[in-house]
Amino acid sequence: MNDLFCSEVARAEHAQLAGTATRADAWLLVEHRGAWGERAVEENDLPAAVQAWMQAQVAAFKPLVGKTRPLLVRRDDDASQATFACFLAIAREERRVLYRLDVQSHMDLAGLDLAALLEGGELEDARCDRGLVLVCGNGRRDRCCARFGVATWRALAAAIGDEAWLSTHQGGHRYAATGLWLPEGVAYGFLTAAEAEPLLAARSRGEIHLPCFRGRTFHDLPVQAADGMLRAERREAALDPWRLLEAVEESPGAWRVTFATPTTRHVVRLQRDTEEALVSCSPAKRKTIDRFTLKAVESEEAA
Q1: Could you tell me whether strands 68-74 and 164-167 are parallel, antiparallel, or unpaired per DSSP bridges?
Q2: What does residue 21 show for φ and ψ, rounded to 5 degrees?
Q3: Which of 49, 62, 71, 176 would be a feasible disulfide site paired with 110, CB 3.0-4.6 Å?
Q4: What are the Cα distances from residue 190, in Å, to 9, 12, 109, 184, 186?
Q5: How many Å is the maximal CA-CA distance in the chain?
Q6: For 132, which DSSP code?
Q7: Residue 86: Cβ-neighbour burial (10 angstroms; 0-12, 13-18, 19+)
Q8: Which tens digits make up the pLDDT trace of 164-177?
Q9: What is the C-alpha separation between 42 and 21, in angstroms, rounded?
Q10: d(CA 74, CA 143)
Q11: How far is CA 44 from CA 27, 32, 71, 114, 271, in A?
């Protein structure tokens, strides 16, 4: 077996986190306590009708809320629990809401048209006021996710109980443990059990834990990178300190991203290049990834 753990290599190389979050406007989460395969959303023992239902819902949500990513989630292996949870987290800049449905059987989901219920305003009774913190623990996809993810989830669950869930692959296991704060759409990387306390302290203040911040999942990668770099420059941890005005690629790889507050405009200029990196370690795999370099931050009073 390869002795290198891709996330440890990435940490040692001080890999950039800003601009690495998986892009999604919404997340469909289905509790599943059985075995997760390497590509767990497809490789599991859920009934075929339920797997087909998940894919159909993802497609149906697209015109309503945008790109939707499905994940399987679980809290433990207690098969005695009587119900299964299903969550829909809408995580957009202008709309953030979490819905929860509990069903007796996974087959109960196959008869639900969540997209139609959402469009008709019939999910409001399922609105959930408590958010979720997800940590990828799918060791079949990459051993780093098992090594770092499970311990991180346990530390979170000890503090916040059923708001913390293990999930299947969130994207970017070289940044394991990876995490999501929903429905706020905050993506984290390089999480460990030791990061649980400061992450939750920041969450309780309505802030982002900046040392592990990858980006907001509703932003495209250049915007994620610009947001993270601007936060680092300004030491700004507030969840929503500014809003995106525009993102323009002025020449190949050269991006101008503008954020605004009621009084100030921030223009972030960055360069998007590529580099080869170890992205997985079970088995070892290298591929080309994006790298962003901050060129300038220009701030001025809003007109």
Answers
A1: antiparallel
A2: -75, 145
A3: 49
A4: 11, 11, 34, 19, 14
A5: 61
A6: E
A7: buried
A8: 999 999 988 899 99
A9: 22
A10: 18
A11: 19, 9, 12, 22, 41
CA 143, CA 96: separation in Å to the nearest integer?
32
Question: In the chain, count of helices (H) and strands (E)?
Answer: 8, 13
Q: Which amino acid is at 267?
A: V
Q: What are phi and psi of 143, to 5 degrees?
A: -65, -20
In this structure, what token pair is assigned to residue 6?
């891709």
Which domains, and CATH codes, for the chain?
1-219 (3.40.30.10)
Sign of the torsion angle spanned by Cα atoms 49, 80, 126, 201: negative
**Type of residue at 242:** W
Taking only the tens place, the pLDDT of each residue in 200-233 is 999 999 999 999 999 999 999 999 999 999 999 9
- DSSP-assigned letters across all residues of 139-180: TTT-HHIIIIIHHHHHHHHHHHGGGEEEES--S-GGGPSPEE
% of the chain beyond a pLDDT of 90: 80
Q: Is 96 left (phi over 0), alpha (psi -120 to 50) or beta?
A: beta
Question: Which pair of tokens denotes residue 228?
Answer: 């993270």
Q: What is residue 207's DSSP assignment?
A: B
187 beta partners: 180, 215
Tokens encoding 259: 């954020």
Q: Contact 36/49 with Cβ under 8 angstroms?
A: no
d(CA 145, CA 31): 18
Q: Could you give the CA distance from residue 195 to residue 173 in angstroms, rounded to a whole number?
A: 17
User: In terms of Cα–Cα distance, which of 116, 26, 21 is closest to 69?
Assistant: 26
